[in-house]
Specification:
This protein is an all-beta fold and 668 residues long. It contains 1 helix and 58 strands. It has a 4-stranded antiparallel β-sheet, with no helix packed on it.
Length: 668
């Protein structure tokens, strides 16, 4: 039977403009996210003070320092990048990955082209380093691989190889001086309880190492660097101290405390006169080989950041040439900073570090735009009536919840984290004053938009498998939840008491939509069914069944209340268009993606966005099912997509931990 309803707005908040869609342009406005836990995973370009390189999932991103947009991607890996090295000249980049195809890829840093693919490691690559003249690249495998290779960067050929020591290597560094007419290189490796000094005779193709004696001192080494004269090797450890080794005798000379956390990163200052050391506790301390710090000195930090320091790199700008250099810093908390190397210059205090960007540190599982009138405090769009700010909420697989202002660069305005035995949020719904999330522990939690404070918890809303979908009525007097067991439940918003339960689905509910009359709810499930429910009569009104493959997402166009249509996407990689009251689909667009479709969203402009495990985001004309635009967006499965109220901005989140902001222009 037909559903009698008043005129309704589409999901974007307004009726679509008249006229068919002729075309759409889709441009990346900004990409936010990086693999913050990769040590050495961010570096400044030695030749361009305004450019940085950083690892993001299985790609390397290079873009402007502190500016919006203009980012490019080095795509060549099929699994997470575990290490990165930038050559001393800044002309080459090397990256290594984990997984079955544990390749090392050598890139041209100027034009972003892949030069060589070095496929000798198995299971994973632990660390990389370039020689001072850029002629050699040394790669160390993980413990399961146990191999070390020296590569010729001009030909991509193996110069020498051998068994890796220590077997669990965490860091590698070259000595500045090259001997025997530029053919004999010295480098060091550091890892579990061992430091090894290596020699590589490139002319004869020989490589060998000598383990350094440490006596009774036992350390888990995490970083290393050579002195400017190549006579000493300094190695940082998990205990926060620096050990000094004599290169000629391969013996431990001394050790000194430097920071409370692990000494993870070295950065030379003033040509190696002293070194900044990034600690696992977020501190940046000073190590002066000529005056080793005492325990009290180790407590006096240059700067202190949120999260353990995983990368530090000097910026080659005018300040560096005038004696007041800057550096870029990345922390394990997903934060990028620009800071002065020295706290004081000529007796004058330098400004405190500037936070460039904040991001998720694990996979982004959910993104959703807030309603236009949602309150996000003084930093939110509502407080800036004449600005182009837009608010979006994102959820990470580690339980991190964040709110962002897009202008268009994402600026984090709220952050919180739920500590639970089941960490990952499974669904989100943003309201005017709060946002609600469903969790694998079966609870529904509501957080304040401004502070992130937990307002209330609805325990055991779906105890078996968790809460997989949430939708709120237009009048906000009730909300609906769907569970992993297939149930749909209706709750009173004020009292948070159960009103109704519907039990016809046989698998996880993947989507819920409360129709504009607040009397009907549409639910989609992995059991291939889409059911329309009458909330007053508490019964099923209509049901559609997708012929092949489970459904992952379903969106409804409510622009025409007399003939509402919807589209479902899922395992069959197709788009299935339906009339809400017809049994059979109106149209099926087969092969919409090369892999399983994971998410979908509909704009107020009548444009459908879909994301897939094939790492692409595609735009479609909802009326005709015609493909309008496609972008290879993420370097992992696309988890979620969402449109702004005006349909001009699309945000996508992926398993790579990246949030991408897209400008969408519709031509009619």
């Amino acid at each position: 039977r037909a559903l009698a309803m008043p005129p309704a707005a589409s999901q974007g908040g307004a009726l679509p403009p008249p006229g068919p869609v002729k075309g759409v342009t889709m441009n990346l406005a900004h990409s936010s996210g990086l693999s913050a836990k990769v040590v050495g995973g961010m570096a400044a370009d030695p030749n361009d003070p305004d450019r940085i390189f950083y690892v993001a999932g299985s790609t390397v991103v290079y873009g402007h320092l502190g500016k919006t947009g203009g980012q490019s991607f080095l795509r060549g890996h099929d699994d997470d990048v575990t290490c990165m090295a930038v050559s001393h000249s800044g002309k080459l980049i090397a990256t290594g990955q984990t997984g079955v195809n544990a390749d090392v890829v050598l890139w041209d840093a100027v034009n972003g082209k892949e030069l060589f693919r070095l496929s000798e490691h198995d299971e994973g690559v632990a660390c990389l380093a370039f020689s001072p003249d850029d002629r050699l690249l040394v790669s160390c495998g993980i413990h399961a691989d146990g191999k070390i290779f020296a590569w010729d960067t001009e030909t991509g050929c193996i110069v020498a190889n051998g068994a890796l020591s220590p077997r669990e290597t965490n860091a590698i560094a070259f000595a500045p001086k090259i001997q025997r007419n530029g053919t004999y290189y010295t480098f060091g490796t550091a890892g579990k309880e061992e430091v090894v000094i290596w020699g590589c005779d490139a002319g004869r193709g020989l490589i060998g190492g000598q383990k350094c004696g440490t006596g009774n001192t036992k350390r888990y080494f995490t970083s290393c660097i050579f002195s400017p004269d190549s006579q000493e090797l300094y190695a940082g450890s998990k205990s926060g101290d620096i050990s000094t080794f004599n290169v000629q005798g391969c013996v431990l000379r001394s050790w000194a405390p430097c920071c409370k956390g692990a000494a993870q990163v070295f950065m030379p200052v003033d040509g190696g006169r002293y070194y900044l050391v990034g600690g696992g506790d977020g501190s940046v301390g000073v190590f002066n080989p000529h005056k080793p710090p005492t325990v009290l000195d180790a407590l006096d930090y240059v700067w202190e950041f949120e999260g353990g320091v995983t990368s530090m790199s000097a910026v080659n700008d005018d300040g560096a040439r005038s004696g007041n250099p800057k550096m870029v810093v990345c922390t394990a908390a997903g934060r990028k900073y620009v800071a002065y190397v020295k706290r004081r210059k000529a007796g004058i205090a330098n400004p405190t570090p500037v936070l460039l960007e904040e991001s998720h540190v694990d996979a982004v599982s959910l993104v959703q735009f807030a309603p236009p009138d949602a309150d996000f405090g003084d930093q939110g769009p509502k407080a800036h009536a004449n600005s182009c700010m837009q608010a979006v909420v994102s959820c990470g697989s580690d339980g991190a919840l964040k709110a962002w202002n897009l202008n268009p660069r994402p600026v984090c305005t709220m952050r919180t984290k739920v500590k639970s035995t089941a960490m990952a949020p499974m669904c989100v719904c943003v309201c005017d004053q709060m946002f609600m999330t469903g969790w694998a522990d079966g609870h529904v939690r509501a957080h304040d938009n401004v502070t992130g404070e937990l307002l209330w918890t609805l325990p055991d809303a779906h105890a078996q498998g968790g809460v997989t979908s949430i939708a709120v009525a237009r009048g906000a007097h009730f909300f609906c939840t769907g569970g992993a067991e297939g149930m749909v439940r209706v709750w009173d918003m004020r009292k948070r008491q159960l009103v109704s339960t519907f039990k016809e689905h046989r698998n996880r509910v993947v989507g819920l939509t409360v129709l504009s009359d607040d009397l009907h709810v549409v639910s989609a499930s992995r059991d291939r069914s889409i059911i329309t429910w009458d909330l007053v009569r508490e019964c099923r009104v209509h049901q559609q069944t997708q012929h092949v493959g489970g459904i992952n997402a379903c969106v409804i166009n409510q622009a025409n209340p007399d003939a509402m249509q919807m589209v479902s996407v899922g395992q069959d990689r197709s788009l299935s268009f339906w009339d809400l009251m017809d049994r059979d689909p109106l149209q099926i667009v087969k092969g919409a993606h090369s892999q399983e479709c994971t998410c979908a969203a509909l704009s107020s402009q009548g444009v459908l966005a879909t994301g897939s495990k094939d790492q692409t985001v595609k735009l479609w004309d909802f009326d005709s099912g015609r493909l309008l635009a496609a972008q290879h967006a993420h370097c992992g499965s696309v988890s979620s997509v969402t449109f702004s109220a005006d349909g001009r901005t699309l945000v996508s989140g992926g398993e790579d931990g990246i949030v991408m902001v897209w400008d969408v222009a519709v031509d009619r």
